[in-house]
Amino acid sequence: MTGFGTGSLQLTDEERAMADGSDGEAVAAAMDLLVRYGEILGAERLVETDNVCGATIFGPRHSRVLGTSDPVALFSEFALNADHPVDVPPVRAHSCQLIGPRDRELWELQGLSEETNKEITVSEDYLASRGVSILSTCTPYQVGNVPARGEHCAWMESSAVPYINSVLGARTNTEGRESAAAAMLTGRIPYAGLHLPENRLATHLVRLDVPVESVFDWSVLGYFLGWHLRDEIPVIEGIAGPVDPVAIKQFGAAANSSGDVELYHIPGVTAEAASVEQALGGREPVDELRFTRADVDRVVEHLNSTATGDEIDFVMIGCPHAALSQVREVARLLEGRRIDPGVTFWVFTPSALREVARRNGWVEIIERAGGRVMADTCPAIGQFVPPGARRFATDSAKQVHYLPPIMGIEGRFGDTEACVRAALTGRWEA
What we know:
Elements: E1 4-6, E2 9-11, H1 13-19, H2 25-41, E3 46-48, E4 52-54, H3 60-66, H4 71-78, E5 95-97, H5 107-110, H6 114-129, E6 154-155, H7 160-168, H8 177-186, E7 188-190, E8 204-208, H9 215-229, E9 234-237, H10 245-258, H11 276-280, E10 287-291, H12 293-303, E11 314-317, H13 324-334, E12 344-349, H14 351-359, H15 362-368, E13 372-375, H16 379-382, E14 391-394, H17 397-407, E15 410-413, H18 416-425
Parallel strand pairs: 4-5, 4-6, 8-9, 8-10, 11-12, 11-14, 12-13, 14-15
Antiparallel strand pairs: 1-2, 3-7
């Protein structure tokens, strides 16, 4: 195919036709956005993608700014950066909606008004009418969207990106709402960053001086790496494997909270590294890090630094969204027991997994104990906590990193068992 120049980025005949409006104004706006974005990244071309995960459900926070709740106008403004409403055709790429602002069943428990719930429903239904799968989770790979090794994707979500890049060996940068929406409509994304094989090699070697076994251990290690590496690519030496899928899910989320670790290598565990040497591509590491007991203590102290006391009135499990095994574990710990009446206990999981958990009786066990199983959102994304909540406990390094500054509450971080114990007693025991 002939390449057409647009600055330093070359378009194919098909892409140039899209840019010129052959598929309508919305697709042309999407191509314009991708070209400008690609040139900023230094991309020489675009690459085809058939797997896009974005977040384009809009509610009152957006409609108040725009002065209308019309879903076409909202999508045009906030997803395509268009200066007027444009008719959006069905998506070209397989596309999924990530975690959203509300639980479709338990929106009242979140404190949403009926009007707000209706606005979100209209936006969600509009997306579905355009062909977007409403998975509504930060973990699409848990509910059916499992990209293949080497597949070019365009995913948002800071916890999902390192998972599919590293564990599955798919290829994506951490996209924004606009670039993901543009990829949905065009089936294209700039060929730059982690789409290029040479950019996927490890830069830093990490050696472990302490065992990393439990989900808690992996969360702490992830936060440590993000803290120290920022956006570098580590290869971790000394893990025998296999690694619990929940542990590796929490690890990536933590690393991409304290830093921007979009890709990591663990020989024998992740997709692209059979050895440390292969992960480094035969090069010497830029630097080596050692993970020590003192580092564990520093990370745990930091993640608990917003708490001024031990009384707990809110416990949150499920960031990233809980796997079925996590819901089952919570049910096991709560069975036959009763949550302290002064504590609100919420577990978050994708709605598809909540339905399975219902069939298994785990939701009933949790509710009988006084908790609730919620879906499709979380306190940080939806910006809600129980009324009057002052101090919460969580087993998620990501949630304890984000929720205190977002919602102005204090946080305690520990393993799942410690969080359930706090829910039962109303107090945190380190």
